[in-house]
Amino acid sequence: MKDLVSIITPCYNSAEFIEETIQSVLNQTYENWEWLITDDLSKDHTVDLIKKYNDPRIKLQVLEKNGGAGNARNNSLERATGRYIAFLDSDDFWYPEYLETMTDYMKENNAELVYCNYSRCNEQLEPVLKDFLADKVVTFSNLLKTCRLAPVSTMYDTKRVGKFLFPIKSKREDHVMWLNLLKVIPEGMPVKKTLAKYRMRENSVSRKKKNIIKDQYLVYKDFMGFSTLKSLYYTANWAMNGFLKYSKIFN
Questions:
Q1: Which residues are within 8 A (CB) of 112 and not within 5 positions of it... i.e. 6 or more apart?
Q2: Predicted confidence (pLDDT) per residue in 10-62, tens digit
Q3: Whole-prediction pTM value?
Q4: CA atoms of 54 and 194, how far apart (whole Å)
């Protein structure tokens, strides 16, 4: 029997997109999954939409207090029982072969962490940038300068590395978590196929690079324990790479 994949999803006011995300999971060719959705006390009808789907693999929990995406992801991680951990935000999308391709690659290549290409789309899931390419082996060292790992396109093996929680006091919680994971394992391997779509929403915090430079600096200073000079050096590298990553938007 194929190993169980635990899908980790935080959601908050996601009614506009959640059904497309749900359908992309239900369409997976790899069927042995559990989906741990943690709703962060949505004010719209997100929860009602999720409850429409009568599939025992979808396990919804609604928090009593809003605590942010990192806290919601941790809630899902704590409930997860699968060997493989996959992340899917409530407005993103997987191609049907995503889980099967990623798990097959991990087994065939004895990998502990893998990531794939993904399309960068607008709110209508239409491409607005060239696909982000998984073209390099990821290490702790090169992840310091730019975060190549996105939740929508990354999977790791808990049997090999255990579970890694997100820091709830950082607005760059995903980068901190990936760095902590890559302190333990030597590398993450690229799957050179486009298997997911990432929605670049206009109000997304991750799009407002100028507003989160301080938060990124704190990734290095507070969470990695680097000196001020070293933290400034890596923040400058991250900012430049972020500009190059998102500057070529086309109509």
A1: 106, 156, 157, 160, 161, 185, 188
A2: 999 999 999 999 999 999 999 999 999 999 999 999 999 999 999 999 999 99
A3: 0.93
A4: 29
- Written as six digits, the tokens of 222 are 């507070």
Question: In b/e form, how buried is each residue of 199-231, taking b as 16+ CB within 10 angstroms?
Answer: bbeeeeebeeeeebeeebbbbbbebbebeeeeb
**DSSP of 169-222:** T-TTHHHHHHHHHHHHSS-BEEEEEEEEEEE--TT-GGG-GGGGHHHHHHIIII
H or E element at residue 156:
strand 154-157
- The residue assigned the tokens 């972020």 is 242
Residue 249, CB half-sphere, CA atoms under 13 Å: how many? 13
Contact 168, 74 (CB under 8 A): yes
Nearest-angstrom CA–CA distance, 227 and 59: 42
CATH class of 5-208: alpha beta
Tell me the percentage of the chain whose pLDDT exceeds 70. Answer: 93
- Tens of pLDDT, residue by residue over 182-221, are 999 999 999 999 999 999 977 654 445 567 899 999 999 9
Where b means 16+ CB within 10 Å and e means fewer, 44-54 reads eebbebbeeee
